[in-house]
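[Meeting: bench + compute handoff]

Bench side (C.D.) handed over the final construct sequence. Compute side (W.E.) agreed to return the predicted structure before the next meeting so the bench team could plan truncations. Sequence as handed over:
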Amino acid sequence: MKANNLFLFAVTAVVLLCSCTKESYFGDLTYDRDYGRSSDKGVTMSHYDFTVESIDWQLATASDGSSYLVAVLNVPEITARVVNDGSVTVSRGYTDDDGYTVWTPLPMVRAQAMDYNTDTEYLYSEYLDFEWTEGAVYIYFTATDLFVDDDPSHWPEFYLRVTIFK
């Protein structure tokens, strides 16, 4: 009985080990720096950079009176195929003190310590997130006090990268 169990265990282990293959979602992904595209076995990644300036925002007000900003990025590369079978990510980029571009994936929260109207410092947070659909990415900016100044010169500017996987 013990020998049969050991034999059965050995056969099962050999079958399982022989049937397993090491597989990665992206396989050996290669990156073409000039075009911002990578591909392997039908998976394609491409990215597009945008600068959202203060004039690109639209002020929106919710039914409860809170306000937020919306910017629409036109991205015709987000096709029905991407909507059905792919994915989209957005990252915020900035240049650090050493001159390198640093990327933070959205959604993100950052602390701010300045009231632009009075030049008074105080701590609050800003929330930056996104939604996407065929042909467009919607960027949302919300302050934690749920109030956005209605003066566009006080609205933020962001450098964003939209990455599309299809």
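W.E. noted at the follow-up: The chain is about 15% helix and 45% strand. C.D. will use this when planning the next construct.
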